[in-house]
Automatic annotation (TrEMBL):
InterPro entries: RNaseH-like_sf, Transposase_11. This is Transposase. PANTHER family: TRANSPOSASE INSL FOR INSERTION SEQUENCE ELEMENT IS186A-RELATED. The lineage of its organism: Bacteria, Pseudomonadati, Bacteroidota, Bacteroidia, Bacteroidales. Residues 10-130 form the Transposase IS4-like domain.
Length: 190
């Protein structure tokens, strides 16, 4: 947390159980679903050594979980509700990047600036949308992943896409027919 604070960024984390702190002052009045908004400091010597500055404690009542959630942040400017919402949306951001890794095959970012990352994500999403459109246009029976695989293999062929997809579907049907000719390990041989 100290490193994040040193680069003038802010963080929002859940409060750990058993964390000892002292309240310096109340920042805003409690208005549902915000139960509390306080400026605090760690009272434990080791915790104070890890983060010597003051923190903000936002207490938020979650109707879905039916419990009060405590969030710690170093941002004193944003409204308490925005702090709670940013933590709640954190999971959506993680799911978005997981989806990118699984579907767009962005294993690493080639640039470190926000512009470079945005461009790489936009290009990957655009390519995925084009493949999804081709899948719908040609009524491809397989998954989008299979279509991406077929396209990556036949990328440099000068054939209409419809012929490439027909050839792939014919090979899949042929493999399915051949699997009935050969016994598998689990067939009962008498």
């Amino acid at each position: 947390m100290k490193e994040i604070d040193s680069i003038s960024a802010y963080f929002v984390v859940r409060r750990k159980r058993g964390m000892s702190y002292s309240v310096i002052k109340e920042l805003t009045a409690a208005v549902a679903p915000i139960y509390g908004d306080k400026e605090i400091s760690f009272s434990n010597r080791w915790a104070r050594k890890g983060y010597p500055g003051n923190l903000r404690l936002v207490q938020y009542y979650s109707m879905e979980r039916n419990e009060v959630l405590d969030f710690l942040t170093n941002n004193f400017q944003l409204p308490a509700m925005t702090i709670a919402e940013s933590y709640r949306n954190r999971w959506n951001i993680e799911l978005f990047f997981r989806w990118i890794k699984q579907h767009l095959y962005v294993t690493r970012f080639y640039g470190t600036s926000a512009n470079a990352v945005s461009i790489q994500i936009y290009v990957a999403v655009s390519a995925y949308c084009l493949v999804a459109l081709a899948k719908a246009l040609y009524s491809f029976k397989g998954t989008t992943y299979e279509l991406l695989r077929v396209l990556s293999v036949s990328l440099f062929e000068r054939q209409p896409l419809k012929e490439v997809l027909d050839r792939y579907e014919d090979s899949v049907k042929e493999e399915a027919n051949q699997s009935y000719l050969w016994p598998s390990l689990f067939d009962d041989v008498n």
